[in-house]
Amino acid sequence: MMINLEKLKELKACNSGVVNFAKYHGNLSFDIADALLLPNVPYSDKKWLISLAVPKETYKTWITGVLSVMRDTYPTTFFDQIELRGCINLVDNFTESPFPEQAEAAFKAAEAIVEHVTTVDSAQWQSMNLFLLTSYL
Q: 131 with 67, same domain?
C-alpha cells in the first residue's frame, strides 16, 4: 500500500493529519514502512495508520517483538513498579495457547504493556517501535 495525500483522504484521516502531511510531504508517495518513519508526523497518526494498513498477523508479531525488546532492556523491577506483572504473566503463559481466547487475551496484554511503556518513555520507544515494525513489513 502506498501512502500519499489521496490515500490518507480515502482512509478518512483527520483533517490535521492531512494538512500536516501536505505541509511536510506534499504529493509524495511512500510505502507503508517508509511512511512510518517520516519526520513531522505525530506518533498518534502513525499508530492510526498502523491500525488500518498493517496486516493483523504482522501487527501481532511486531507487538510481541517490541515486548521482547522491552523485557531485555528494562529490569524486571521496572515492570513490577508499574504494576504490569499480571500482564507479563498472561503473555508468558498464553501467547502460544491453542485456545484462541487465551491467545487473544495474551496479545491484548502485550499490547497494553507496549502502550504503557511507550507512554512512560515515549521518545526512545516510539522511534524504536516504528523502526522494529518496518523490519516486519
A: yes
Provide the domain limits for residue 63: 56-136
* Residues in CB range of 129: below 8 A, 6 or more apart: 62, 66, 114, 118
C-alpha cell at 39: 519526520
Three-class secondary structure of residue 27 per DSSP = coil
Question: Would you write out the chain's pLDDT as a tens digit for each of its 137 residues?
Answer: 899 999 999 999 999 999 999 999 999 999 988 998 888 888 888 888 888 888 888 887 787 777 777 777 776 666 665 556 666 666 766 666 677 787 777 777 777 777 776 666 666 667 777 777 777 77
Rounded Cα–Cα distance for residues 75 and 92 (Å): 16
* 61 and 108 belong to one structural domain: yes
Q: Which of 38, 53, 68 is the last residue of a domain?
A: 53
For residue 126, how far is the Cα from the chain centroid?
8
Three-state secondary-structure class, residue 74: coil
Nearest partner of 13 among 47, 55, 61, judged by Cα: 47
Cell representation of residue 15: 483533517
